[in-house]
Amino acid sequence: MQPALTVLSWNLIMQKSPDDGSRRVKNIAAILYLVVMAFLVGGSYIHQQSDKKPVKESVDQANQSSDVGQ
């Protein structure tokens, strides 16, 4: 009787519920959302870092522009 019980419980475990399809779609959508957000945030961060100038360079340019007027 034990092997029949094992086979029966194995079949119950391996049965797919109707929610498996929707769960898979939701998981794929969540992964795509995370990839898109990582791309947007990362691109924004890189763009912001590339726009920043070192402080010394900015000060030198400000001094040069004020010297021109004198």
Question: What count of domains describes the coordinates?
Answer: 1
What structural class do the secondary elements suggest? Answer: mainly alpha
Radius of gyration: 31 Å
Unreliable spans: none
Gap between N and C termini:
103 Å
- Please count the helical segments: 3
Q: Indicate the mean pLDDT.
A: 77
How large a portion of the residues is in β-strands, by DSSP E? under 5%
What is the percent of helical residues?
A: over 70%
Based on DSSP secondary structure assignment, what is the total number of beta strands?
0
Global geometry: rod-shaped
Largest sheet: none
Order of helices and strands: HHH
Quick take:
With 70 residues, the chain is mainly alpha-helical.
Note down, in words, how this protein is organized.
With 70 residues, this protein is mainly alpha-helical. It has helices at 2-14, 19-51, 55-68. The radius of gyration is 31 Å and the shape is rod-shaped. It has one domain (16-68).
Write the layout of secondary structure elements.
Blueprint: H1 2-14, H2 19-51, H3 55-68
Supply database-style keywords.
70 residues; mainly alpha; 3 helices; 86% helix; rod-shaped
